[in-house]
Fold this sequence. Notes:
Pfam family, one: QRPTase_C
Shape: elongated
Organism: Natronobacterium haloterrestre (Halobiforma haloterrestris)
Largest sheet: 7 strands, antiparallel
CATH class of the largest domain: Alpha Beta
Protein name: Nicotinate phosphoribosyltransferase
Keywords: Glycosyltransferase, Transferase
GO molecular function, one term: nicotinate-nucleotide diphosphorylase (carboxylating) activity
Amino acid sequence: xxxxxxxxxxxxxxxxxxxxxxxxxxxxxxxxxxxxxxxxxxxxxxxxxxxxxxxxxxxxxxxxxxxxxxxxxxxxxxxxxxxxxxxxxxxxxxxxxxxxxxxxxxxxxxxxxxxxxxxxxxxxxxxxxxxxxxxxxxxxxxxxxxxxxxxxxxxxxxxxxxxxxxxxxxxxxxxxxxxxxxxxxxxxxxxxxxxxxxxxxxxxxxxxxxxxxxxxxxxxxxxxxxxxxxxxxxxxxxxxxxxxxxxxxxxxxxxxxxxxxxxxxxxxxxxxxxxxxxxxxxxxxxxxxxxxxxxxxxxxxxxxxxxxxxxxxxxxxxxxxxxxxxxxxxxxxxxxxxxxxxxxxxxxxxxxxxxxxxxxxxxxxxxxxxxxxxxxxxxxxxxxx
Length: 385
């Protein structure tokens, strides 16, 4: 089978077939009527600034989508934060991109949601190790989208092997409860020793220590078993068994220190979100965040024509005319008509495609630096808020 998992192939997306049916019918109607107006369209989530910022990403895939089509596209830089106004502007004959709207919005909406949620986790503990553990909650075909969004927002790593191959990064992770079950209760030390002897030396020795006994007992046993080779313990206790999770982690930390294992880190996973990170960040050294990222709502982008044949136009509830957005000197987000003077600050929309040619380069490290710097500038989820 050429497509055993029933996913939409890239060829269909590039051809414009991954679309809503009414766009195909719009094309048929306009072609029959001999109409193909020159338009400017904008992608927005909110018309005016709201004060609630999201992370913009997915722009690289959009550039690929428009490559070879007779349009000009401007967009925010990858990783920029926004809270209103256009994030992208498209200009050209309407039928050059009519059917691309559905895929275009999908390329932006879900990754931007993932990235925004990952940034919330990052900002909850700026100095802690935070990893993306969410790939198991999404279709495997988009795992690399989740992991890229997480890296963009400053997370320190991820767990998905195939995504790592796509992104040119090595996936991280140590052991699941299944490994512990295979050795059985009372043989936890054998499981940790077997792991230590089997995996490469550069893999951190992080022992899972909440499988059969209480977290303190297993953590101390892991420290006694591996000694100086143990880098840390991972507590993955489910929410139904946690009680006061902060107290559990504090108790583990206390007993490790009391027995001379001050250098053993504590890593927390299992239902971790920004609020729990803020509660634990002073007693734990790292966090694995999964469903908070993958369950994030997509950013509700829409595409609307704002100028037709040089004249402003809009549907009810939307703003007509070509617009520009700015990052003001005080960290604000300002929307203005593009042909008017803007405020003191930086105009954010930059060339992406010119007459079908991609004119921007994409660098994940640069985008991540931009994201984190902009989050600081706009006060995105100030730590402790």
